[in-house]
Amino acid sequence: MAVPRLTASMAMPVPRTAALATVSSSLGRRATRLLPVFKGLRICTRLPGVPFATSSRAVCRGAVICEAPEMTTERNAFFLSLISSAYHIIVPDVSKATWKSLVMDSDVPVLVGFWAPWCGPCRMIEPTILKLAKVYEGKLRCYKLNTDENPDITTQYGIRSIPTMMIFKNGEKKDAVIGAVPESTLVISIEKFVVR
């Protein structure tokens, strides 16, 4: 029975401390080979004697395999903070207590993003809403409504999936866009109601 040979392309999950393995070569000699070590989301090949703390990019040549949810959340929060600081604007929350004064009694059209903290697509579209809030500053107000904390308004407007963006003008619902859509889709909807 033939024993499979270890090739450089094989990637096997191993603990960080077990980076070396003994394998048989075709000549019958035993050789020590460096196995890949998983470091976060990259497969890295460590040189013997080089600790992780001092490993450089040249030593650690790996490709991203997958993205853990916590990494995605951290990365999204980082990029969202960059975007919001670049535009110097935030999308404020609206609630049942502030709904009438901020949305219904507004003198300009209002875009309300219905979202929840656990919703991935909601986090994906938030930078787009931040950008649109800046682009249409003075012509459109943007708010976000947490559907978990405001079930009454969510039910009143028949929200069945999130993210849902609704446009209100003169206290009336005028349009709705459901899902994490491209910016151009939201712009088309907004342009119908914004005064130039």
TrEMBL record:
GO molecular function ontology, one term from the record: protein-disulfide reductase activity
This protein's GO CC annotations: cytoplasm
Pfam families given in the database record: Thioredoxin
InterPro entries reported in the protein's UniProt record: Thioredoxin, Thioredoxin-like_sf, Thioredoxin_CS, Thioredoxin_domain
Record key words, sorted: Disulfide bond, Electron transport, Redox-active center, Transit peptide, Transport
Span of domain Thioredoxin: 80-195
PANTHER family named in the record: GEO12009P1
Protein name (record): Thioredoxin domain-containing protein
Organism name: Ensete ventricosum
